[in-house]
Design goal:
It contains two helices and eight strands, in the order αββαββββββ. By secondary structure, the protein is α+β, with helices and mostly antiparallel strands.
């Protein structure tokens, strides 16, 4: 009985150390946090989310929302689609400035503010 108990303690100790190492490796992958704001009709989602080194705006959006794209352009976020008849399209800002590139071309930095919204574009 004593051998069984000792073996169990050793096994649990090894298991806990292995779990702790996995958690540390996941923490090492996190490069920072960004503020992600998505305006869905009358609902405004505003949250702090983590990202990994090399992630783009699109990566973070897709990690947190259901996204549909067409030729690299966002056409729907969480079921709210652009409306071509009304000329309403998905746009986004990075740090309160209109994005100069596509969401898949902008790499994130710790502390960035990303805001997605629909706007009339003619």
């Amino acid at each position: 009985m004593k051998k069984l108990l000792s073996s169990l303690v050793i096994f649990l100790s090894i298991f806990l150390v292995a779990c702790d190492n996995d958690a540390a490796e996941k923490d090492d992958q996190v490069a920072g946090k960004v503020q992600l704001i998505v305006n869905l009709d009358t609902n405004k989602m505003d949250e702090q989310v983590t990202f990994e080194s090399g992630d783009t705006v699109m990566d973070v959006l897709e990690d947190n929302y259901e996204v549909e794209k067409d030729n690299g352009l966002i056409t729907s976020i969480d079921g709210l689609a652009q409306d071509e008849a009304k000329k309403l399209y998905w746009m986004f800002k990075v740090n309160d400035e209109m994005a100069p590139k596509g969401a898949d071309q902008i790499t994130l930095n710790d502390g960035d503010k990303i805001e997605f919204y629909q706007e009339k574009f003619e």
